[in-house]
Amino acid sequence: MKELIGTGTALVTPFKPDYSIDFDALGRIVEHQITHGTNYLVVLGTTGESATLSKDEQLAVIQCIKEANNRRLPLVLGIGGNNTSLVEYNFSTTDLSDFCAILSVSPYYNKPNQEGIYQHYYRLNSASKLPIIIYNVPGRTGSNMTAETQLRLAQLSNIVATKEASGNMEQVMTILAKKPDDFLVISGDDALTLPILACGGSGVISVINHAYTKTFTSMVQAALKGNLIEARALHNKTVEGSIAIFADGSPGGIKTMMHELGLCGTTVRPPLWPVNNQVEENLRKLARLGL
């Protein structure tokens, strides 16, 4: 899918100090992404704190992003969970008319074995009206989706890509070496995006791109064109920030940088909490270094 090649941004949900959604800031964030070169937007992912949004709030966030975007960029919607039947139900009952794909995280907390993970996605493949990006993020889910399992899933008709955030380059390179030609490997780790692209990856679903939008998207485009010297220079401008935003929790880190840039406040919803003072000071210094 050409819509998924390049840089996608996993959008934050900005909050006011009273924890209500700041829709004005959300509109600014979308406009900032569009005008600085982002290729597509990911709605209601982990970075969007979707786990702490009510169903009505989720629908309101979707509507705000759709209106701000005005069909200018492709949209991907996050729909996942650890109850396979409920995820199937959400696939079938959600209005997907404005989205090009679904991002669905590997089941968390339950810690299924590899066959359980495969069967979960096998059912979603049959239930989905849209292409699916599988999402491997063992640091959050508690279990790794192996290269073998991802390559099995790559054979299914609606599963078109993986967002790989295992941090295991051997695993990523195995998938890249053995995947079908039309199956996309998307980096889920900002700091590892350049090496993944150099090995044949198709892009990234990014967090740091909120703050370093022009520089980071330019790095991805340079790498995709094979201009690795240019890409490496841009990577070196962004890599410290890419790591630092996760030093004391996400999306607290990226919201701190965005606040410094005038895009939104730093509020996150409990059980998340803003970053500590030392991390905050460093992130504010870094906010403009990668621009």
Give the topology, please.
Elements: E1 6-10, H1 23-35, E2 40-43, H2 55-69, E3 75-78, H3 84-93, E4 101-105, H4 114-127, E5 132-136, H5 138-141, H6 147-153, E6 159-164, H7 169-178, E7 184-187, H8 193-198, E8 203-206, H9 213-224, H10 228-244, H11 252-260, H12 277-286
Parallel strand pairs: 1-2, 1-8, 2-3, 3-4, 4-5, 5-6, 6-7, 7-8
At a glance:
The protein has 291 residues and is an alpha/beta fold.
Oligomer: single chain
pLDDT averaged over residues: 97
Helix content: 40-55%
- CATH topology-level name: TIM Barrel
Give the end-to-end Cα distance, rounded to a whole number of Å. 29 Å
How much β-strand is present in the residues?
5-15%
Strand order of the largest sheet: 1-2-3-4-5-6-7-8
SSE topology string: EHEHEHEHEHHEHEHEHHHH
The CATH class turns out to be Alpha Beta
The coarse overall form would be globular
Number of domains: 1
Quickly give the structural class.
alpha/beta
Low-confidence stretches: none
Number of helical segments with 4 or more residues: 12
Going by CATH, the architecture would be: Alpha-Beta Barrel
What's the main sheet like? Answer: 8 strands, parallel, barrel
CATH superfamily: Aldolase class I
Number of strands: 8
If you compute it from the alpha carbons, what radius of gyration comes out, rounded to the nearest whole angstrom? 18 Å
